[in-house]
Amino acid sequence: MYKKNQIQELIAKRAAKELRGSCVVNLGIGIPTLVAKFIEDENVYFHTENGLLGVADVDENQIDPNLVNAGKLPVGETIGASFFNSAESFAMIRGGHVDVAILGVLQVDQSGQIANWAVPGKNIMGVGGAMDLLVGAKKVIVTTTHTSKDGKSKLLRKCHFPITSTRSVDMIITELAVFKVEDKTLNLIELMPGVKLEEVREKTEANFIVRIKEGAK
Amino acid sequence: MTKIYQDIKSTLSCVKNGHTLMVGGFGLIGAPLTLIDGLTKKDVVGLTIISNNLGEKGKGLGALLSQKKIKKAIGSYFTSNRDVGDAYQRGEIELELLPQGTLSESMRAGGAGIGGYYTKTGVGTELAKGKEEREINGIKYIFEPAIRADVALIRAWKADTLGNLVYYKTARNFNPLMATAADIVIAEVDEIVEPGELSPEEIVTPHLFVDHIIKAQKVLTKEGVIAYV
């Protein structure tokens, strides 16, 4: 059994493989934030919606309380970084200038629609930039644990929680498998190392098609 | 007439009961901590606060919430201060949730003399309920009205005595937008310099937007606490 942080890193590492070449990427809170540490291509630029293009890692001894990412965690800035106000930041997002958004979810359904901003009856009342990223980013990748804390599938036939957008995401990466969303259908394209298809079937409520590429590891 | 104020109490004398205030910051980052502290000491009620969050638990705008001075909050992310949800469940506060891009664009419109605009953000979700939908070139949009406030309390890095402002890193966030969208704009700054010291190329908020300037007495430190300068 993997520990929680190992599972998160496994997912983040797999998501990082999707980011190649010159691109602008926005990382959400949680597992998405971890993706940055697995990127070695210096042509990948990180955008954070609170107003920075060119997010970098920061050393513990160089923390600046006024330089943070969207999760309010301290970050650094790259050479060539720029700062801007929130309206300009969201013009970048909504206007289609951000190539990839990597987001966490509460639920995702078999058409690729996600719910990640509200839980009815609970004090989770924060939409932040999620709705803007879904309508604006060219590609949306979801990184999430396959099941919730109580062991229930987060990949559902239909989201019970309020949806974030009518747009379907493009890819879903969990600790068990990678799904590509095409024509509002989930396609399992890859099993994570050591995972058997049977386990994915057992832990997934959503319907999906198996399309594992020959030779894929 | 000078825009520089020394005394926080007199700077905040323009804030009245029932006013709508824009308050800068992304959480505590770039929030006008000195002015917010001034509000906690002021006898004022029934405020509507437009801000991305309501501070953190007991800190920043969170302190104002604890004092029950806030009637309504308009923002994008209230999850990080659990007191907000609790106050909402008890019926003590009215909340209006807007996507972050809509919140900031509505301020931009409010400051630019635009009545409202159409955005594709939120179409088909619960946040679009009751909002006018319109199709433009085959894409669905919803109408969002501009927002303005009676007073904006903002935070900048440096001001010159004319009121030109520059900001510091990600402490900029909503501050330059709020500076354009309120009847009275009060800027709390770390440093006040003479005109000419800020390059015209680097000024983010030109002075015509700014009414009052006050020197910050509280800052956000590495430990996340608010310390006296």
TrEMBL record, chain A:
InterPro entries the record matches: 3-oxoacid_CoA-transf_B, CoA_trans_fam_I, NagB/RpiA_transferase-like
Pfam families tied to this protein: CoA_trans
Domain of life the protein comes from: Bacteria
Gene3D superfamilies: Glutaconate Coenzyme A-transferase
Keywords tagged on the record: Transferase
Family: Belongs to the 3-oxoacid CoA-transferase subunit B family.
Protein name: Succinyl-CoA--3-ketoacid-CoA transferase
Organism: Priestia filamentosa
From TrEMBL, chain B:
Pfam families per the UniProt record, alphabetical: CoA_trans (PF01144)
Keyword Protein biosynthesis: no
Highest taxon of the lineage: Bacteria
GO terms of molecular function: CoA-transferase activity
Chain coiled-coil ranges: none
Keywords: Transferase
Name assigned to this protein: Succinyl-CoA--3-ketoacid-CoA transferase
Native species: Priestia filamentosa
